[in-house]
Design a protein that fits this description.
The protein has helices at residues 2-11, 21-24, 34-62, 67-103, 109-112, 124-138, 140-153, 160-166, 169-189, 195-213, 223-248, 255-259, 269-293, 305-317. It is 72% helix and 0% strand. The longest helix has 37 residues, at 67-103. α1 (2-11) packs parallel to α4 (67-103), α6 packs antiparallel against α9 (169-189) and α9 packs antiparallel against α10 (195-213). Belongs to the EXO70 family.
């Protein structure tokens, strides 16, 4: 046990300072300190479990005359407790290192991320944040204790808006990180040649994050907010990409081919199905309403709402 406790000092030795996102995120999109953070969690777990070995022995020896042995165990427990505090501080410092790199925006867009090439792509920073949040959630008890202590000591300024809703510094911290990710994804979406493709990029990335977060018990409070954001972006996408198509559909079905360029490039089957339904409902219901409300203009229409729906399905499959 003493060897394990002495090993703590080597584990918590500080890494060289990392001040920019390139040093935090490697070429594969992995957060460089994540392995270190995982190791810190594992070692702290082992140090914590050591108390279950020491405490029963202390109770047994305290009722006997073995004073020296009892004192030795008390010293060992004090050392274990000190090492636990050291590990907790190292975990918090590493979390701050990662979080600061993610949340810091120095105004240099190119230094923070690679420009996305496809709207269906899940950006490496999104993937990194997903892995980071999963690691924190896997070690929730430890993280919750550490973040609460940091908040109580004033070393972590809990975002007031989210804290008022959750009364939990840890979930507030994750909500703040998700919000910051959305801001940065929005900035990245502006690099696409048109707004529709940028909106698809936002939808794909936020849906990927939603998939990672929604099974987590302690982040469920975020899900209605994140779900509404995704729904809002889908509505904006429909308006931006398919309103122009719908506006010209009463004269010719050819605008549907125009819509092909904005057809959702989506890898996730669940999201793809959802977007297809939203597009179909948007176009067919809009076209039906147009036929019913403007009989003069549509008197010469050569297509029906059902034919429009069939053409959309062909477009989806093509």
């Amino acid at each position: 046990m003493l060897k394990m406790l002495s090993f703590v000092d080597a584990i918590v030795a500080p890494n060289p300072n990392t001040s920019c996102i390139e040093e935090i995120i490697d070429s594969n999109g992995a957060l460089a300190p994540l392995e270190r953070l995982k190791t810190l969690f594992d070692v702290r777990g082992a140090v914590f479990m050591a108390s279950f070995l020491i405490q029963p022995l202390l109770l047994r020896l305290s009722s006997s005359a073995q004073t020296e042995s009892c004192r030795a165990l008390e010293d060992m427990e004090a050392l274990r407790s000190d090492k636990d505090d050291i590990l907790a501080e190292a975990i918090w410092n590493t979390m701050q290192e990662v979080t600061a790199a993610i949340l810091t925006d120095d105004g240099n867009h190119d230094s923070w991320e690679d420009t996305p090439q496809e709207p269906a792509s899940i950006h490496k920073v999104t993937r990194s944040i997903e892995r980071y949040i999963r690691l924190l959630e896997m070690n929730y008890r430890s993280v919750d204790q550490i973040v609460r202590k940091a908040a109580d000591c004033g070393t972590y300024a809990v975002p007031a808006e989210t804290y008022n809703k959750t009364n939990n510094p840890f979930t507030s911290m994750m909500a703040d990180m998700v919000s910051c990710l959305e801001e940065k994804l929005t900035k990245m979406s502006q690099s696409f040649p048109n707004k529709s493709l940028g909106l698809l990029f936002l939808i794909n990335n936020l849906h990927s994050l939603w998939q990672q977060l929604h099974p987590m018990y302690d982040t469920k409070f975020n899900m209605p907010v994140l779900t509404r954001k995704i729904e809002d972006y889908i509505d904006k996408y429909l308006q931006e990409a398919w309103e122009p198509v719908l506006a010209r559909l009463h004269t010719s079905p050819s605008p549907l081919q125009f819509g092909r360029r904005y057809f959702p490039k989506v890898l996730d089957p669940e999201l793809r199905k959802k977007l297809r339904k939203a597009i179909t409902d948007k176009v067919t219901s809009g076209f039906t309403n147009f036929l019913e409300e403007d009989t003069v203009s549509t008197r010469g229409s050569t297509i029906t709402p059902q034919e429009v729906e069939d053409m959309l399905q062909e477009l989806f499959e093509g």
